[in-house]
Amino acid sequence: MNVPDDTRLVLLVATRKGAWLFHGDAGRSTWEIDGPHFLGHIIHHMVLDPRDRRTLLASASTGHLGPTLFRSTDLGRNWREATRPPAFAPVEGDAGRTVSHTFWLTPAHADQPGVWYGGTSPQGLFRSEDGGDTWAPFSCLNEDPDFRRWMGTAQDGTPNGPMLHSITLDPRDPNHLYIAMSGGGVHETTDGGAHFTTLLDGLEVVEGFEGSDPTFHDPHCLRMCPTDPDRLYQQNHCGLYRLDRPSREWRRIGRNMPAEVGDIGFPVVLHPRDPDTLWVFPMDGDSVWPRTSPGGRPAVYRSTDGGERWQRLDAGLPPRQAWWTVKRQAMCADVAAPVGVYFGTTSGELWASRDDGAQWTCIARHLPEIYAVEAALVDVG
Amino acid sequence: MEVLIPTPLRDYTGAARVHADGDTLAAVLADLDRQYPGIRFRLVNEQGRTRPHMRIFVNRQAVFDLAHPLAGDDEVCIVQALSGG
Fold this sequence. Notes:
The structure holds two protein chains of two kinds. By secondary structure, chain A is mainly β. Chain A is built from one helix and 27 strands. In chain A, the strands form seven sheets. Chain A has a four-stranded antiparallel sheet with strand order 3-2-1-27, with no helix packed on it. A four-stranded antiparallel sheet of chain A has the order 4-5-6-7, with no helix packed on it. Chain B is an alpha+beta fold. Chain B has a single domain, classed as Ubiquitin-like (UB roll), CATH 3.10.20.30. Helices cover 24% and strands 21% of the residues of chain B. Chain B contains three helices and five strands, in the order βαβααβββ. In chain B, a hairpin with a 2-residue loop joins strand 3 (54-58) and strand 4 (61-62). The longest helix of chain B is centred in the middle third of the chain and has 11 residues, at 25-35. Chain B is globular, with a radius of gyration of 12 Å. The A-B interface holds A 62-66, 68, 81-83, 85, 87-91, 96-99 and B 8-9, 37-38, 41-49, 51-54, 80-81, 83-84.
């Protein structure tokens, strides 16, 4: 089985200099390139609404102009700018915050058509109820004194700025959300954002810092199993973890990775049907944190038993002297069987596997630095 | 009055020089946004300050206060620094 009969796969590639769409054939073997869109804009994330398979949202900024969002309802043939992009509340004096860019986009619950969530840099949580045209701050989070303290300042964030990401919805309950902040930890709400609780137990922090303080936690990517919403995986600055709810204790499954590779990285990708199967892309987190493939030998690692054992998957990837890595939004899986796994590199290459990661093929080179890759199904015919 | 638009914002205006009305810089920017929706937020943030790398000149003098008063024959020039890579 490849993709379902009346659908095709499209890869949505967001880069530092624009966006591209790669339309796959039925066998996922050839890809038709559509782009660049927004050449020269920084596209932080581009997501297709799975509820209508037509609406695209793209988060954009430039090095100078303020942030915005673009919307398309015809798969990118025409784009319209959002009427009111995410923005923090105005504040008298110098205490007000300014959205640098929308880093993360998540379509809301299947029963909430047109509702989207957005996570920004610096950390902010926003919601749109009109398909991404107008946005408003969501929940208590943006102005809560505790959250504001945990968010730190620009100096505490990532090289691309502090950010709120991994907005993760429970498909059983639209009021149950997880969010993650770099920095600021992992948080959960069960009442639609009226209250949040921290989920930090078992997570490690950099030596010398206090693990009970969310300020010092840096989750890189949080994912919920599509067929088991009680299972979460997290790639963190300090390792790779699994959480099986209702437990609140993360377990460091990255300890089972080969010691010479380690369990540092940005993305974690989950199987569409099997909660025990996941893929990660380790990077070098030693000394000054090169954030490159360990030893210049890039590889995907896969576990099929929930993180107990790991298998190196590098067939087709450069065997040596390849010093790129994969950012937290730049790796994904499709829903076909065998599963297609995709990643984009900091050096502008787009790689694909049609067989659960066993064999890799480069399907595009020379793109700008890739920030995000999403695999989505679109209707045909 | 006439407002000079920098190239990165001409996707909004379609022209280098456009007309906008207002007795303050804030009012002129509001009029620009009415004519070209979205343009103001690209150069002024939600806290009412011009964004880094964006500069507004009135009669060739840099102006940072959006309450700056304007007369009908003033020349407003929006400029974007082209730093980056």
